[in-house]
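Structure (tokenized):
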């Protein structure tokens, strides 16, 4: 079986609604409206999932008079897990070539004359960069902190950020001022593996559909320096996502608020708290209306807290 076919089937099955649809179709062929009624799903949702199942060759359709009937593809559903994970050598080679080409492109983008120009924002690109720099260290060997700093500084000026990232990522194990390079760091690293597939656009479409059906909660949160009491008040239509991205940026030294980033590095992560101030339900608002209401909510909290100058990290907006 081709690698792309296996991936298509596995991804198509990785959804509870699609599993329920397949289960219903194994009982008997059904049309879209019938599936929507018995599964308590919207017709548009059922149609979306059926299209994914059809693309994976797990269902087929036949027009019968006034309806389009969908059937479960029993041959495809009888495939074993071994059938799905057994990929021919040609496919393995092609996938490896795509991965290596992608890695080479990332390295060309973020390195110039052997120096790292900037740390990528995207996590999988960040991991490729870290992997490239980690080649300067010998697995299983122990280094003093000044030597680690010197080797990293040859590639990137902010060696502190990269050194911490290597510890967090499992490349280094730290004991005081001594760093050991894990001999199996590639296997134990907490960074995600790189996946290069040909169905990226399909995945984006699926994510957009999921977003429409289950939009995230928006609102206002604060990042508080518990040592000084200074605040940064932030709003977003995706509150959880914004909090997570803010944590990640601060952790890796790439937050846009320079004053907050400097204090984070000076006081340490344990000196800061992330607190939700207020959530705003979406209800029947359009995206534009919801964004405007979230911005208005932020303005209210800014007026209340006044997190400017010595009191915070926000910048006063010009009238």
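Design, position by position:
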């Amino acid at each position: 079986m081709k690698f792309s076919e296996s991936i298509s089937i596995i991804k198509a099955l990785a959804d509870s609604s699609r599993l329920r649809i397949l289960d219903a179709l194994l009982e008997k062929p059904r049309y879209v409206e019938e599936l929507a009624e018995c599964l308590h799903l919207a017709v548009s949702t059922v149609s979306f999932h059926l299209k994914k199942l059809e693309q994976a060759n797990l269902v087929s359709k036949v027009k019968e008079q006034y309806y389009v009937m969908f059937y479960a593809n029993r041959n495809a559903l009888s495939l074993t897990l071994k059938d799905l994970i057994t990929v021919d050598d040609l496919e393995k080679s092609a996938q490896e070539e795509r991965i290596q080409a992608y890695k080479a492109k990332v390295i060309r983008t973020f390195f110039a004359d052997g120096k790292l120009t900037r740390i990528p924002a995207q996590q999988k690109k960040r991991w490729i960069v870290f992997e490239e720099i980690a080649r300067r260290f010998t697995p299983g060997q122990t280094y003093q902190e000044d030597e680690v700093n010197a080797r990293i500084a040859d590639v990137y000026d902010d060696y502190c950020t990269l050194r911490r990232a290597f510890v967090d990522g499992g490349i280094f194990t730290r004991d005081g001022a001594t760093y050991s390079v894990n001999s199996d760091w590639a296997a134990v690293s907490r960074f995600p593996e790189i996946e290069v597939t040909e169905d990226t656009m399909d995945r984006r479409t699926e994510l957009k559909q999921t977003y429409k059906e289950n939009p995230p909660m928006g609102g206002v949160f604060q990042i508080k320096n518990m040592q000084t009491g200074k605040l940064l008040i932030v709003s977003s239509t995706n509150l959880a996502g914004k909090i997570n991205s803010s944590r990640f940026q601060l952790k890796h030294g790439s937050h846009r608020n320079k004053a907050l980033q400097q204090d984070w590095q000076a006081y340490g992560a344990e000196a800061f708290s992330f607190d939700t101030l207020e959530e705003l339900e979406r209800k029947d608002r359009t995206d534009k209306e919801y964004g405007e209401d979230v911005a208005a909510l932020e303005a209210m909290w800014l007026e209340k807290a006044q997190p400017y100058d010595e009191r915070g990290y926000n910048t006063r907006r010009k009238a």
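Reviewer-requested clarification: Residues 187-201 have pLDDT under 50 and may be disordered. The two ends are 63 Å apart (CA to CA).
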